[in-house]
Structure formats: C-alpha cells, structure tokens
Amino acid sequence: MEKDSSKKILLSVLGVAILIVAVVGVSFAAFSYSRTGEEINQITTGTISMLYTDDSNGIKISDALPMDDESGKALTGENNVFDFTVSATISGTATINYAITATKEVDSTLPDTAVKVYLTSASDATVDLAPTKVSALTKTVGGNSAGAPADEYTLKTGTISATGSTAYRLRMWIADDYAGDETAGITSQTYKLRVNVYGAAAAQ
Q: Are residues 35 and 67 located together in one domain of the fold?
C-alpha cells in the first residue's frame, strides 16, 4: 500500500515537471517567434534636389519674335535655354515620386497662350515634353504624390528608385501663331518661368 502511494507521488511529481517543461517550451517558442517578427517593415527614406548654374532657377523671353517649333527646338544661348539637374539620393528600397514644375513670374506681360516650352534630356536630347503652349500644360493639384504645391505647371512627373542624377534642358519661345497686342510690340513684352522640383517618398 505504501509502495502504491510512493508511485502515485512520484508520477504526480513527474507529471507536474513535464507540464512545467511543456509550458516553458511553448512560451519560449512564442517569445522567439515574436522577436523574429520585429525586423520586418523597416522604414526607408530618400531625398531629391535640383541643381542649376544660372543666377536664378528660371528662363526668360525678351526682345523675341514668334518662331516655328523646329526653330524653337534648336535654340541655344542665354534666355533661350535653361539647364538644370535633378539629383536623388535613395536609402534602402525607397521610391521617390517627383514632379518638375514651373511657375509664371508676376511681371510677365505675354499671355500663356503665346509661349511654348520644350523639355529634353541635356545629354542625349530625349524628349520629355514635346513643344507645348504653357496654357495647355496640366496644373498640379493639392495632395499630389510628389508633394508639389497646387496650381503649378507640370513639365514632367515620374518615379526614382535608385541614387543618381539626370540633366535636363528647357527651351522656351513665342509661338508662331501669336499675333500679339496691336497696341504693344511683341518684342517689348516679356515672359519668365521659374522651374521647381519636388519629391516625396512613395508609400511602401
């Protein structure tokens, strides 16, 4: 009888010990799993900037006459072209939504319908924006993915997912179908655009 009691006690002790080991084992496994999950969903960032060599980040028409698109696309020299570079620094797997935009200076006297713009790559002349009247350009809206302010003229939008830079050349001229104001000579009128670039990290 005493032997049976000892067996029962021994079995009970062993049972409790096994239960404790099982609980500890399950708890350790759950704890280990939660730790492995802490390394996902890392946040990555990037930056974008515009570099230019002129005194101001813009292009201006003055003392000019209307011209056809072929002549406009071949323009060179001061106030005919504006060269700038868009550079991006990407960290990790970030993707940047960017927008190259333009704003009209308040002292411009020519209407938007009179002026054409043409954007290309400065290195290989890849066309990013065909000759287009400023009045026909799409305007940015609030809350856009690049973070650009509303009501700016859009020259180009896109995404960048690797560190690097792209050089651009913007040309601007008076459209050949603009007759002008009879009370003011065309060559006495001016038009100036300020170029901007904006970028924001895309949602991961």
A: no
